[in-house]
From TrEMBL:
PROSITE patterns: ZINC_FINGER_C2H2_1. This is C2H2-type domain-containing protein. It comes from Triplophysa tibetana. Residues 309-337 are annotated as: Disordered. InterPro entries: Znf_C2H2_type (IPR013087). Residues 64-86 form the C2H2-type domain.
């Protein structure tokens, strides 16, 4: 592996092989270019497969890959045989073409008339190909009878001149390949500048390794030793590496010392070239300049700033997963994207006012609903970006309104009514589960409830005990802290999604008697706060998950699914087996 300027890496792909081994690759540097599109490759098999996959169906047929050969075949097997003839020097100097399609065949009259018969079977009008004959027909039997009566015997010289393609002789084709210039414009190395750029250095290194193998016939093992030695030299330049990473981070508005240190350690820890496979360097060397893949440092930054699951291959499925009624709606009639963007900017201005007009904000948020959902569902932005573009959405009033637009039910009403209906039976189920002494955390919650049994604390006990009953670990989703004893950063450390419950004074119980403040945390950012009760904050957390299109946290996915399908009755018929089991247990308790 070679360390380039700007933090880029030049890494190999497969084991100790420096060059990307592809069966059928050309031993020379001839660049094959597709005749129908801009695709090109230095590997013969790659361009053959490209013709087969992209241009081998329909009326285009299978075209010969040689630039001076205009032959087109009906099958891939015929093309492969033709390419073999090219290599053996047995290609005829003239061919017959079809007037109705792009097909052309060797000077074999039998094959040519078999092709014309295919057009006749499709009831297409075919002209007689012989000189001085104006006969046309759409019937195969009539055309065959005409040929037998008037054109027997026939030879290649009897065909019309415009149907004969005169090809370049094989000797001239071979001479052209033998004289292929290694320093052609496609792979040339520019003259050295007074200040060499990173791009010129990359091109020179690539050209060097190409010539080592193709011109000087240096073995692959020797080339690999050179690559490893160059990498060892690059490892010594630790300060240069750190400065390069720092320049890239500053370019992308990231000046975190912690990020700089971690990335520098990442580069220094990757001492084995076989570990750095992201750039597929040999595919780059043998076919593409400049380097198409991003530097490893940028790939690392991109992974850090993406939500989990965004790197999956293929397009993301824009479909409802949690029972959303209006998941990604169409824009309203009469409103263009520019109109909705203007309304969004009006909303931003109104929110910044000391005394904003909440009625106007409601109307603007409703009018821009489709644009907002398109951005959130399609782009999957981070929570900071959503808060910057849609600041009005992060308050209790707008979360409830947005949830109703998405799911078509009221958030707080459905959540609290469903919880009040199920809380007594849930507590009975918890009580039965603690008799075996296998759930001490759940027993501590029930013991805390017995000290002060009120309706509000019953709600809290039912919610906080749910993950323990479902054998889940809620420590990273539900946290409690002294409101005056810890810093906010320390209390939220490691939290991606959850509730931060603040209390005053010492708390020795499973949950505090008096709640000072509850905050909703998303991706290490407080998005909602100043809630004085846990049940309402749970409802707001569920509302934020729907509004920002988040996935349920894995550590409590069954608890959130229970709240959705059993408590709020959103798509209750699609419950998982674990949630279905606890729902059946609740039905047995008729209190």
């Amino acid at each position: 592996m070679i360390r380039l300027s700007g933090g880029q890496l030049f890494a190999h792909v497969r084991g100790t092989n420096v060059f990307y081994d592809l069966p059928g690759s050309a031993t020379h540097l001839m660049k094959w270019t597709c005749k129908f599109c801009n695709f090109s490759s230095y590997i013969e098999k790659t361009i053959v497969n490209h013709y087969k996959d992209k241009h081998g169906r329909g009326r285009t047929g299978f075209s010969c890959i040689y630039p001076n050969c205009l032959t087109v075949f009906q099958s891939h097997v015929e093309l492969l045989k033709h390419l073999t003839d090219h290599k053996q020097g047995t290609i005829p100097v003239a061919r017959l073409r079809c007037e109705l399609c792009t097909f052309s065949a060797p000077s074999n009259i039998k094959h040519y008339f078999l092709h014309l018969k295919r057009h006749l079977i499709k009831r297409e009008t075919v002209n007689c190909p012989f000189v001085g004959c104006c006969f046309t027909s759409r019937v195969a039997s009539t055309f065959t009878a005409h040929r037998s009566r008037y054109h027997q015997p026939s030879s290649f010289n009897n065909f019309k001149p415009d149907l004969i393609i005169h090809c370049q002789s094989q000797a001239s084709v071979n001479d052209e390949q033998d004289n292929f210039d290694l320093e052609s414009p496609d792979v040339s190395v520019t003259e050295p500048d007074s200040q060499p750029t990173q791009k010129s250095v990359e091109r020179r290194i690539a050209s060097l390794f190409l010539r080592l193998q193709a011109v000087l016939h240096v073995s692959k093992s020797a080339i690999q030793e050179i690559v490893d030695d160059l990498f060892d030299i690059g490892k010594c330049a630790g300060q240069i590496t750190r400065e390069s990473i720092e320049n890239v981070l500053e370019k992308h508005n990231c000046t975190s010392e912690e990020c700089l240190t971690s990335l520098t350690e990442l580069f220094q820890s990757r001492g084995d070239p076989r570990c750095c496979c992201e750039l597929s360097s040999l595919r780059w060397i043998s076919g593409a300049f400049p380097l198409k893949s991003p530097p490893l440092v940028l790939m690392h930054c991109a992974r850090v700033n993406k939500r989990k699951g965004e790197e999956a291959k293929g397009p993301r499925m824009k479909r409802s997963k949690k029972g959303e009624v209006h998941y990604c709606p169409d824009p309203p009639e009469g409103l263009s994207d520019e109109d909705m963007e203007e309304k969004r900017m009006m909303m931003e201005v109104e929110v910044l006012k000391k005394d904003p007009d909440h009625q106007q904000i409601d109307e603007l948020m409703s009018a821009t609903f489709s644009k907002r959902r398109k951005e959130i569902v399609g782009d999957q932005p981070l929570i900071g970006d959503v808060m910057a573009r849609w600041p009005a959405m992060f308050c209790e009033r707008q979360v409830r309104a947005e949830f109703k637009r998405v799911v078509s039910i009221d958030l707080l009403e459905s959540f609290l009514d469903g919880l009040d209906d199920l809380a007594p039976r849930l507590l009975e189920v918890y009580e039965a589960a603690t008799k075996s002494a296998k759930k001490p955390a759940l027993k501590a919650i029930l013991d805390c409830l017995k000290k002060d049994d009120t309706n509000e604390r019953r709600r809290i006990a039912a919610l906080l005990g749910l993950p323990h009953y479902l054998r889940e670990e809620p420590s990273d989703i539900i946290r409690m802290c002294d409101a005056h004893g810890e810093t906010l950063a320390a209390a939220m450390e490691g939290m991606q999604l959850g509730l931060l419950i603040g209390y005053e004074g010492d708390n020795q119980d499973a949950f505090p008697r008096e709640v000072f403040n509850v905050a909703v945390v998303v991706e290490g950012t407080v998005v909602l706060h100043n809630f004085k009760d846990v049940p309402s904050s749970f409802a707001m957390l569920l509302g934020i998950i729907y509004c920002v299109n988040l996935e349920y946290p894995r550590a409590m996915k069954y608890s959130f699914e229970f709240l959705q399908r059993v408590v709020m009755k959103i798509k209750p018929d699609q419950a998982s087996a674990r949630v279905h089991g606890i729902r059946n247990k609740l039905l047995r308790y008729n209190l």
